[in-house]
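Retro notes
What went well: the complex prediction finally ran end to end.
Inputs used:
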Amino acid sequence: MNRMNVLILDRERDIGELFARALETMKKYKCYYATNEEDAVALLKDMGFDLILADMSILSTGDFSLMRKIHRLCPGITIVAGAYNHQKEQITKALSYGAEAYFIKPIPIEELRKRIDDLNIKANSSIRPE
Amino acid sequence: MDARERERLRKVLTTVGVITILLLGIALYLGISTAREMKGIIRDQFNQQQLVLAKSAASRIETAVQNAIADLRLLNSLPAIQYADPESYETLLVSILPVLSRDCISEIRRVDRDGNTIFVANDQGIGMRHFGLVHQEAGVFLSWAADTGNRGKATAPTGARPKDAAKDRGHIELDLITPTYEDSTSALHLRASHRFAGYFRATLDVNRLLNQVVSPIKSGKTGYAWVLDSSGIFLYHPETTFIGENAFEIRSKRNPNLSFLQINHIMRDEMLRGNESTGTYTSGWHGDMVGPMEKLIAYTPARIESPYGYIWSVAVVAPIHEIEGSISAVYERQILLQGIIVFIILLGAVIVVLYELRWSTILEHEVVLKTDDIRRYAQELERSEGKYRSLVESAEDLIFTLDRDGTIKTANQHMSRLFGLSKSVELTGQSLYRFLPREQTEEQLSMIRDVCDSGRGQRTETIFHIQNEEFWFNIHYIPLKAEGKEESRYILGIARDITDRKSLERQLINTEKLASLGTLSAGVAHEINNPLGIMLGFCELLLERMEPGTMEYTDLKTIERHGLHCKGIIQGLLSFARISDETEEYCDLNTAIEGIVSVVRHTLNMNNIELMTDLEEGLPRVRGDSKALQQVFLNLINNSIQAMRGGGILSMTTRFAPVRDEVDVFFSDTGYGIKQEFMEKIFDPFFTTKQVGEGTGLGLSVSYGIITKYGGSIECESCTVEEDPDNSGATFTISLPIEGHPVREPSVPGTLNSPPESEPANDTNEDEKTSELRKQESGKEKITQEKTRMINQENRKTGKEKTT
């Protein structure tokens, strides 16, 4: 089985570590994490990713310019945004800019796993989250 | 001036007038009598003067007669006359006639002892014997002369007589004779024979004499003198026609209409008797003036030598009016002046009186006007007072006056009602101590005394306990200055009930507190959330790798547990701060309840709690997010579970209330209930009766927030074990407006939607307020604790009997 590449983008290094460890136990994901946009872009350029879990605050800078970059760099990538409770408009915007799904932080890792699984990403397939 | 006073005034005026007239009369009378007296005096004086004149005239007449007699005697003593020698007496006569003429002797005659005229000498010449007996001498002459007793005397043997009675009675003469005796010697007659030789007669021209003497007499202006003789003949009168006439007759003849009684009387009884006096009489004319004329007369006799007391009477008369005229003039002038003065005085008095009358009328008028004015002002004042009184009385503020010691002087209706009395008069005189607690009264009184002493008003906000209720008042004390004094005895107080404001303020403060708390919480929560998430995440990871049962596993579990606790708090805080993720606008309550029931069923069973649901069919949807409402329900259920340690009955009921367009949800348990003193606080944030660490104390307050956010209300009724062991428990009633109901804004604390109520100013229980509101809005039928209890009891009968 092909392991999918997952990029975790969050300013908080520990969250990246956490999500990466959580997903990697599922054995079908290979996780990388970046803490800022430049690093993320560098990684995206470097290799293809299937999934990116991005923190909303990074995602939304410059009117979601990063999202466009991501789409350019990795067309067909699934973008999942992680947002806090109060960032509803941004969630909506992110979705409209092409984010596949969103989750509310903090999220227990078990639920994260479940959500990602439900996304049923099969290397560039896109199903809307429930 | 009323009629009575007018009457009196008229009487007074009349009396004064009468008295004045009387006085005037008296004055007049006095004046007149004085005048008359003066006149009398003047008359007398004048008459005296006239008398003097008359007397002088009379004496002059006498003197003239005496002169004539002297002449007679002188001549008689001449031998020429005695012896009547023609040669001698001729020359003599020629030379002496002018002399004699000067003495008014008009004729001398020598008559011999036989009565024959020897010679006559008069203005016609000298007549001698050879004229013959010219006049038959009156025998009386001779007989008198022949009387030796008369030797040496002279006399007028007859009275004055007209010279020629037939021709002219006015020509009067008087004969004076003296017996002649040949007593003298001369050249021819060397020896005196002393024989009676007849007599010697001189005839006085009376007219001339009297003309000389009398006519110049002027008495006053036109007064004159006339002379009468003993026989009543006018010997002299300025009215020349009178001369020689009978005085008694001639007047009447002249003016037959008048009566001359007076003058006749005077003449007859006085003058002819030789009296000397003065008097008055009325004459018919005076000079040229015809008419009754009153005259003053002074008369005196002139004695003529005669054998029988022959007298002439000289009268000096003057018309009274001449004398009195001037006097009268003076007196009239005086009387006139007096009259004028009196008149002026009277006039002045009348004017003064009139002015007084007018003045008093004007004053009266003024007084009436002023009285009207005063009455009008009084009415206006009354009206104004009434207006202000009604203002004060109807005011919603307390308006009162107090003295320094706290005795109420006046109070308006509102105040008496507040203090529990029916009328404001009942408050007067009462002491403030009677109505307020001691400390509060003391506090106010010290402020009042300050106000009194300083003379400046003060404002204060203070709380009062009146009749077991709490009120907040904003009071303005104003000193009432008594006139002229610096210190006030009383203060005016206006107190505004600000209880509602205070409670609203408190609510607002609470809201702000809550809001800031919320904001703070939100911030903090966020800050904590992240690390917390990471913590829990790694914890989870670790737990996956640990074997359950190992110490590591247990320790990790402990860590997880507490981490979750923190999360719970955070969530609660975030919910509390209204940061929510609701997505639904309306939901079905029954579905929500059923959903939550499925969640808690297991827990309920575990805790030996029987669940009874009574969900009305076909409930309309209500405003709200089902998740949030479920959170509320969960919270209530958890509370009930906590309250029913050992078991109990939990019942959930839903009802549609069409009257209110609301759905009611009742959560009722049979736990140990909520103490009365806690009832007001249960919806306060962080209020909990649970042990530390067991609960956050936010559950009910969050629930309250959620329900009210949707425009609903949540209330609680409870009965504790202590109060009623058999019926203890709590019932929470949630009411939510249905979909489509034009809901009023939720009664969130801090919004001024609920009408202000005069409730005690404690930490207001919003639910009670809301419930009050709902109660007021319509007659509601609520399933009370009672009913719930009944339901519970019924349920109990069917279910297990539980005691807590």
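What we learned: Residues 105 and 751 of chain B are 165 Å apart (CA to CA).
What to try next: split runs per interface for comparison.
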